[in-house]
Amino acid sequence: MHTTPRNRLFLVRSAAAPLLFVSIAISSGRAQLSGASGDPCGAALEQAQGSLEADRPLDATRTLLSAIPRCPGNAEAYALLGVAFDEQRRYADAHRALLKAISLNPAWAPFHNNLAVSYLHAGNPQAAMTEFQKALRLDPGSRIAVLNLATYYVDRKEFSRALQYLQTFPTGESGDPDLLMLLTRAYLGSGSTQAASRTAAELSAAAGENAKLRFSLGLLFAEYGQAAEAIRQFELIPAGDRDYETYENLGQAYATAGHPEEARGAFESAMRLAPQRPEPYLELSRVYLALHQTDQALYLLSQANKQFPQRAEVNFALAELLTRARRFDQAGIALTEAIQRHPSNALLWQARGDLFNAQHLNEQAVSAYRRSLRFAPEGIGPRIGLAEIDQRSGKTEEARSEYQALLRLAPGSVEGNTGMGDIAFQNGQLEAADAYLERAFAEGPADSRTAELLGAVCMREGKYVEADRVLRKQLSIDPGNPRLHSLEGRALVKLGKGDEAQLEFDKARRLTSSDSAPQTR
């Protein structure tokens, strides 16, 4: 059994982030649709626009349908009606109204933009692209059309196409936050981290104490693995403006950056602000585990389980940690109660499989894993467990098949790549073993079994410097592992560092003796 719970339940980090670009684009288009003075529809148009800006599209629809018979040739009335229908997801009605507006005034670019947005909402991107291009031909400098086109391509991960549009604007001079945010996303997505940092710095300088903008920037950098910059943006939010989501995501960023104490402080703040939420308990328990404080993590999860007995993810986390701590009876009791409440929950059946697996009760473990997969056929954790049992039982081909199925679902799986690397190593296929294990070690979080195997493969290949690198890195995380110290000693011998090697062998002996000494209470 592995030391970290599988199928970790991450927060939806972007839940609090506003959908800036599409809504701003539509709103900016609407702002140009007010009625002219003397127009019999003018008052109705202003009233309808106010209803739309207040998120009351049904009120706007009633106002416009009542007004249009009095001024049937008013393009703006039909354009606003199209937006109102679109916000009610009445897309066919929206398209008819917007096309009517265009027929009355075909040269007005915002009409084409809003029709394009509605086509996107209706799932017709080809028609949307045609209308966006019409808007740009009519108004080559249309900020709204460029924002929407860039957003579309960023969402599709076609970052170079997004940049083609965004880089036509003098963003640095205008300080336009929407353009700068999209540019940052596109640069990060394309791997241009330096350009992303420069653009984000411009946006950050303009943000001041704008908490929403800082939060959006923090989420963006966290999404692309830039934990240090994410932390900086979250920390720049004034203390009085920090809410639960800010502290929760700040804690995630600190944990990713390897700062467990700071992560603990952030999660504790999130817990104080939202005591009814279980997520900070789960995250804080992982921080305690990173600090090798298993008892504190168990206490925290036990409290969470009492407070949130109906939350299966809490039941799962507690059972997995009890199993890891070899408190098998307690894990069994907790799982029996949880499965009675959630008999069809795949995670809980996986945890039961892990419990049996840890006790080498293979038949019971296989049965639990199979049941988990019936409830969630794409499950990763049960496949890891099944592969481990096959490998332990000497069923190498069955284990290989399970690991291959796992890697098809999750190519970056540490367990899948480590398992395939182990099988290749045992079969003398050193090059394949090296490739799988390097991939697993790079993916992280660091796993001592992966490091041991990779170190052994490097030693067998004569890559002693590489073995030393891998083992030293893992020893900084797992200094109490005697096998790592022993392997490091062997690598140092090959590198001609006899004195250092002897120190490693001595540490391995002391740790092995400590592990084998009788425990007293």
* Biggest β-sheet strands, sense, barrel: none
Give the N-terminus to C-terminus distance in angstroms: 26 Å
Low-pLDDT segments? 1-37, 517-521
Radius of gyration: 29 Å
Helix content: over 70%
Cα shape? elongated
Q: How confident overall, as mean pLDDT?
A: 85
* Count of DSSP H/I helices: 30
Strand portion: under 5%
Question: What would you call the structural class?
Answer: mainly alpha
Order of helices and strands: HHHHHHHHHHHHHHHHHHHHHHHHHHHHHH
The tally of strands reads 0
How would you characterize the overall build of this protein?
The two termini are 26 Å apart. Mean pLDDT is 85; it is low at 1-37 and 517-521. The longest helix is centred in the C-terminal third of the chain and has 19 residues, at 498-516. With 521 residues, the protein is mainly alpha-helical. The protein is built from 30 helices and no strands.
Task: Describe the SSE topology.
Layout: H1 20-31, H2 42-53, H3 57-67, H4 75-87, H5 91-104, H6 109-121, H7 125-138, H8 143-155, H9 159-166, H10 171-174, H11 177-189, H12 193-207, H13 211-223, H14 227-235, H15 244-256, H16 260-273, H17 279-290, H18 294-307, H19 312-324, H20 328-341, H21 346-358, H22 362-375, H23 381-392, H24 396-409, H25 414-426, H26 430-443, H27 448-461, H28 464-475, H29 482-494, H30 498-516
Helix pairs in contact: 1-6, 1-8, 2-3, 2-4, 3-4, 4-5, 4-6, 5-6, 6-7, 7-8, 8-9, 8-11, 9-11, 11-12, 13-14, 13-15, 14-15, 15-16, 15-17, 16-17, 17-18, 18-19, 19-20, 19-21, 20-21, 21-22, 21-23, 22-23, 23-24, 23-25, 24-25, 25-26, 25-27, 26-27, 27-28, 27-29, 28-29, 29-30
